[in-house]
Amino acid sequence: MQSPFREFREGLRDIAPAMIAAIPIGLLFGALCAGKGLSPAEVALMGALVFAGGAQFAAVEIWRAPAPITVLAFSTLLINLRHVLMGASLAPKMRGFTPLQRALSVYVMADENWAMSERRALERPLTVAYFAGTAILFWLNWVMSTTLGALGGSLMGDPKRLGADFAFTALFIGLVAGFWKGRATAVTVAASALASAAVYVSAGPPWHVAAGALAGIAAAYAMGGHQHGEAAR
């Protein structure tokens, strides 16, 4: 069994590419917040308490004075519903966590450290030290980069010039590739992508997030049943 320090270090090593990819996104988000009139302290507090990049971007897009609380709450809830599924998926791998450790872990759970933890659990038991390595500094990195963006991130200019807007997309492509299991994965990804794209064009955000998630779940369930049926024959 590895020492907690080594587990933490391996978690940090695995999440490092995602941390680097998050920096320009965080700077951009902070600059957008500053343009909406939020102070650096408010941006830091949002990053620390909400810690959900997609939901935060959606909130800033519809932010105005006075703030439309109902619309903000519903939009962020819809976008973050995927965390319910992510938490349910990760819960069985957290049997060695205390209730407090589990609560703190899901608080700082994001798409990236969730994916890293799921992949880790395929090879060996998930530990508190490993998850902490993927989560604590990732959380701190997001808070710091968004705050710096609020202080002066607008100087970066349009991130599309540098291709920075594609950083997270490239990262998620890599994460999906790490989970590839043949036809079942291809069908699930295709169903999710097509449903999300169709709803984005027809209804706009944030509905495409929920549509993609539901279509992916349905496809995965259907493919699971199909494979079990083939195995039974």
Using the CA coordinates, give the radius of gyration.
Answer: 19 Å
Strand content is under 5%
SS-derived structural category: mainly alpha
Contiguous helical run count: 11
Provide a short characterization of the protein structure.
The chain has 233 residues and is mainly alpha-helical. It has eleven helices and no strands. It folds into two domains: 4-179, no CATH class; 180-233.
Task: Give structural notes.
The protein is mostly helical and 233 residues long. It has two domains: 4-179, no CATH class; 180-233. It is built from eleven helices and no strands. The chain has helices spanning 4-35, 40-49, 53-61, 69-80, 82-90, 99-107, 111-121, 128-152, 167-178, 183-202, 207-232. Helix 1 (4-35) runs parallel beside helix 3, helix 3 (53-61) packs antiparallel against helix 4 (69-80) and helix 5 packs parallel to helix 7 (111-121). The N and C termini lie far apart (41 Å). The relative contact order is 0.15. It comes from Alsobacter soli. It is found in: Cell membrane. InterPro entries: Brnchd-chn_aa_trnsp_permease. Keywords: Cell membrane, Membrane, Transmembrane, Transmembrane helix, Transport. The chain crosses the membrane at residues 15-34, 41-59, 65-85, 126-142, 162-180, 185-201.
List the helices and strands and how they pair.
Blueprint: H1 4-35, H2 40-49, H3 53-61, H4 69-80, H5 82-90, H6 99-107, H7 111-121, H8 128-152, H9 167-178, H10 183-202, H11 207-232
